[in-house]
Amino acid sequence: MKRILCMILTIALVCSAVAFASEPTQNQLDDLKRYGIIEGDPDGALRLEDGIKRSEAVKIICTMLCHKPQEYAVSSFPDIAPGHWATPWIDAAHALGLVEGDDKGLFRPNDPVTNEEFIKMLVISLGYEPIADARGGFPAGYVAAAARCGITDGFQLAVNAPAKRGDIAVMTARALDVPIMVQTGFGAQVEYRVLDGKNGYDYRTLRHELDPDSKKEAPLSKENTTVSSGVPLFNGDKYQGRLVEITNFTGIGNGVYEFNDKKLGGDITFKVNKDTYVYISDNTIPLSIAKDGYFAQIWYENSDKAVIDVLKIEIMEYPPSGAR
Are 143 and 39 members of one domain? Predict the structure, then answer.
């Protein structure tokens, strides 16, 4: 449900070729140079139309992550010659889970990095790998996650084509101000949160890691803001969210279901129809899998009606701690 929007966006991003690389703004270039992420040739030329090697790409990512590689690292890839300048960076990227070998275990340091490969490294760096994997993994899931973060806004990137330096500069600069995603629940209660300054969580970006004194704050939120996946966030005073224990779950025809909250009893009925966003662990699902006794987080407009239309419901795989 609604996933078609994500699919359309993914197709638009990866199925169209572009003739020229994006032109980074002066502010973006200043940021990249100030943090030592991307620098020009000795003569200052940026060669925005040129491609970039895989070895050069991992150095960009590791520098963005403030990772200091071990000076005497030994590569785990057989095609990295002893003394290769990028060995510490490649070893660091491999240890961080940013890169892996091909089906022969080779890294191919002099091959050009593709659009999808660089996007994957950016998405992992920001912590959005769970979202990318939930949307199909590499490559489409990572392209979709990058679009969700705004990294590829306005881009038309050719499929499996060498990434151009101009595009890499723009995507990397944008990534600096994307709120990072972290794991906040473990074991049976695995959870991930975006540190966007909302719901009691800090606002943290890669820029803050590079520059702890950065004063850049979270952008002002708008009520009912919509992310690129098409799912509204249902912020603001007009919306309400609550944890429910589903009871009296009933299909009433035409894809419409009704249920009560065990705690509230039969005084209030919640209705889910074809326009409701239905999820479990970030995956779109049919609500028909729900059963009495399942716990769920629901969102709806504040109402004093006896029957309330649910806007979004997320089924929990496990009962929450302290469940009533």
Answer: yes
